[in-house]
Amino acid sequence: MFVEITILAVDDDGMNLAMIDLMLSPLDGTVLKANNGQQALDVLEAFPEVDVILLDLEMPVMNGYETIKHIKQHAKWQETPIIVVTSGTTQVTRTLSLGANDFIAKPYNSEELRLRVMNQVRSKRLSALARDMNESLERRVKERTEELHLKAVELEEEMVERKVAQERLQIQAAQLEKMNETLEQRVQERTSELSERNAEILQAYNELKRVQGQLLQQDKMASIGNLAAGVAHEINNPMGYIIGNLSCLSKYVDKLTTYLDANEQHFASKEPATWQHLVTERKKYDIDHIRQDLPDLISESSEGADRVRKIVQELKSFSRLNNEGVKMSDINEGLESTLAIAWNELKYKVSVIKEYGQLPCVLCNMGQLNQVFLNILVNASHAIGDLGEIRIVTWAEEATVKIAISDSGCGIEPENLTRIFDPFYTTKDVGKGTGLGLAISYDIVVNKHGGSLDVVSEIARGTTFTISLPLKNAHE
Ligand SMILES: Nc1ncnc2c1ncn2[C@@H]1O[C@H](COP(=O)(O)OP(=O)(O)OP(=O)(O)O)[C@@H](O)[C@H]1O
Ligand SMILES: [Mg+2]
Questions:
Q1: What is the pTM of this model?
Q2: Do β-strands 52-56 and 82-86 pair in parallel, antiparallel, or remain unpaired?
Q3: Strand bridging mode 5-10 / 52-56
Q4: Which residues form the pocket of ligand 1, taking CB atoms under 6 Å from any ligand atom?
Q5: In the chain, what are the domains?
């Protein structure tokens, strides 16, 4: 199992050296020889593969102790085991403390020598093996460590690269997100700008339509007023003398009747034949009936004339009120004059019940309020199918005057109650209603007079509009 072993025997006695050579011959090795320490060092220099040194102590030139010191000082020989060959055991401790590995006391037998030599050789080779293994292990560990280190460096570099790439990506993502946000924001801004503009345009358009409608209504009211004033003026003069003549006629009829009675009495007592003739003639011409009917005819005509006069007055009052602007006004008077105007619309199907209360004068634009009354009355008439009733109630309540106009018409669906004041909301056929009446009425009552306009309605039972006007709060 061993490769050939090399032994260095150091002794100044040639006999001893020959003896050792002989004793070790069975080991199949080479025995190198030296006569003193110095020679031994030279041999070692020439044969560094020496496995073990058998060293005598007492020698000339360089004794055994010196030799041990030298050998153990040099790193290249440090591991070479030294077996000290001594004649006594007293030197053993010293040699061991200098670094000798074993000793053999003279006289020794060949068996012991070989055993001790082999022991040292084995232990030297084992420790060399162990050292080699250790070194190779260390080298491998080192290599592995270096590899790992390289790998770690590579990994670290890769990680750094990845991190940089990731950071770049993150920056790009952030930039994209920001761009997205800006874009979204711009789109949102643009959209809201556009919808604002749209709303403005729509509002302006509605306002325009509302103003146009209002102008139309005002025009309508002004023409009605002018027409009413013209008609009233035209009728007023002939009515003057019709009423005057009727009262004259009534007196004349009285006188004529008294005169005829006197005639008849005279002929009845003085000339019966003439009286008889007059009675026949009276019957023939139905004079009794005419005499009986005449006062009725005259009073009916007077009554009719009186009504015409009243209507004329109301027409005049309507046109006057429409042109007077803001002024202390009598609301009941306004309602009356508006009713006269609406009468044509109402007379055939509506009975109007008036419950006017005692009202203080209200600071208002009566013309505008007449427009409100007229629209509510016309709406009420339209809501009544064949026959129905409109009730107008007025009363004073705290610092307000209230006007409730109720009809027995079709009523308004609850979901439409909030819509009826919207401009252009109408359920009437195209061309029949503009849907502006209540919108304008609301504007006049609420915005121009600081009042309120409320509605209560029940389907198939009817509707009540209640106007509430503060006594002194008109804006115009
Ligand atoms: N007394 C009422 N009974 C039932 N429905 C009513 C009554 N008053 C108003 N309405 C409803 O409210 C709608 C709006 O009325 P508004 O007076 O504003 O317009 P209009 O009468 O339709 O048209 P315009 O008055 O402009 O000629 C009417 O079309 C009708 O449907
Ligand atoms: Mg209307």
A1: 0.49
A2: parallel
A3: parallel
A4: 375, 379-380, 383, 407, 409-410, 412, 420, 425-428, 433-439, 463
A5: 5-108 (3.40.50.2300), 324-476 (3.30.565.10)
